[in-house]
Write a structure and sequence with these properties.
This protein is an alpha/beta fold. It is built from 15 helices and 11 strands. The strands form 4 sheets. It has a 5-stranded parallel β-sheet. It has a two-stranded antiparallel ribbon with strand order 3-4. A two-stranded parallel ribbon has the order 8-9. Bound molecules: adenosine-5'-triphosphate (ATP) and magnesium ion.
């Protein structure tokens, strides 16, 4: 079966990865020159894809071993250690003897070993019983990597998650390890810009000024259009300019939404004009209707009015400005800033370069198509 070139999860290969040349080179340069780096962007712009692409590029360098793990969903340092140990297994300990050696090193934490029933990947669980053992687990894992003769680059995705761990001094503990391991370069990545920026830019925080910062934005429109055209023409398909322009309009060129729409269009049509884009967009909105309707239950009337007004505008600089409030009959400015804060906290809206917009581009389209709706 032929691969749809517009992939929707993870990373496949350079062939299906669009552009990001400058960002890729910058990350590789930081890694090769032992500078730790923090990668920040809105949700679904392509942070994880970029890390995987960089790892794919550096995999030719056999003396540099990449270790990737995503700590989204972890709730404690204990779980962090477990996810880390599994990433170590995947990267450096694939042979039976290496796995045995790793289990021996972690023996004090009573490790269990199994295979993931879905992926078939080897999996370790650690029986960590108290704070000393949490600390021991990190000591063992970091020293295990540090003892290795090769160099490592460790990417920790959704790094802001550590702020929610209940243990004391989590940032200081991790910062210590990061500082002490000479043969490991770190890439920290996440989408909670506010939380990550604070972690790395406030003098009182352990990670203050400890890494280079890198903000990822949408892929250059011309480059993305060329990538799309080339994949269509490789399979004898046609994508018309009006289709590309209307996709740009619907998605704001936000990577995930562009990929999602093109995955559909590519699978359904041989020749795509703005008419096919409109049809597919409508179908996607219909499919998601129950999800979007349930979002509305999470909102108060005022929050919904603001959300709708921002969706109708596309992007809004100041949702508390008198003219904006009056145009959309939202209400008093005093209640609006609280509602904006709450919408941002619930990740319905985000502020990028001074403009508020809806995070979910398809949800924004759905709201636009249902202008008169009240929750
Ligand atoms: N340069 C690219 N070319 C083509 N597709 C890409 C590119 N970068 C990312 N993608 C695709 O876009 C989607 C979102 O990317 P990714 O998951 O990397 O974003 P993210 O910023 O890590 O998202 P999240 O904030 O949810 O973790 C995925 O389907 C991914 O395959
Ligand atoms: Mg990601």
């Amino acid at each position: 079966m032929k691969q749809n070139p517009f992939i929707l999860t993870g990373y496949n290969s350079p062939e299906y990865f669009c552009n990001r040349h400058i960002e890729t080179n910058r990350l590789i340069n930081a890694i090769e020159n032992q500078r730790n780096i923090t990668l920040i962007s809105r949700r679904r712009i392509g942070k994880t894809g970029l890390i995987m692409h960089v790892f794919d590029q550096i995999s030719k360098n056999k003396s540099l071993i990449p270790i990737y793990f995503d700590i989204m969903g972890t709730t404690s340092l204990h779980e962090f250690a477990e996810v880390f140990s599994n990433a170590v297994i995947r990267s450096i300990s694939r042979t039976d003897s290496a796995i045995k050696c790793l289990l021996k090193k972690l023996a004090a934490l009573r490790p269990g070993f199994s295979f993931d029933p879905l992926s078939g990947e080897p999996r370790i669980s650690l029986d960590i019983r108290n704070e000393q053992e949490v600390s021991l687990s990190l000591d063992l894992l970091f020293s295990l990597v540090a003892e290795n003769k090769r160099s490592f680059v460790v990417a920790i995705d959704e790094f802001q998650q550590i702020s929610s761990y209940p243990e004391k001094n989590v940032e200081a503990i991790l910062r210590n390890h990061v500082q002490q391991t000479g043969n490991i370069g770190f890439v920290f990545s996440g989408s909670k810009k506010h939380m990550l920026s604070e972690m790395f830019s406030q003098p009182s925080r352990p990670f203050f000024s400890s890494t280079e910062m890198m903000f990822l934005d949408v892929i250059d429109r011309r480059e993305y259009f060329n990538f799309i055209r080339s994949h269509f023409s490789k399979r004898g398909k046609v994508i018309q300019d009006d289709a590309l322009n209307s996709i740009a309009e619907y998605t704001g060129m936000h990577t995930f939404y562009v990929q999602f729409l093109f995955n559909r269009l590519f699978s359904l049509f041989k020749n795509v004009s703005s008419e096919e884009v409109k049809q597919s967009m409508q179908r996607i909105l219909n499919e998601n209707q129950p999800v979007y309707a349930s979002y509305l239950n999470l909102l108060t009337i005022i929050q919904y009015r603001i959300l709708r007004a921002i969706a109708l505008e596309g992007a809004v600089e100041s949702p508390t400005a008198g003219s904006f409030l009056a145009r959309y009959e939202i209400g008093a400015a005093s209640t609006v800033s609280q509602a904006v804060e709450s919408l941002a906290r619930k990740e319905f809206i985000q502020n990028e370069s001074g403009q508020w917009s809806l995070q979910d581009k398809f949800f924004a389209q759905w709201i636009r198509s249902k202008k008169g709706l009240r929750p």
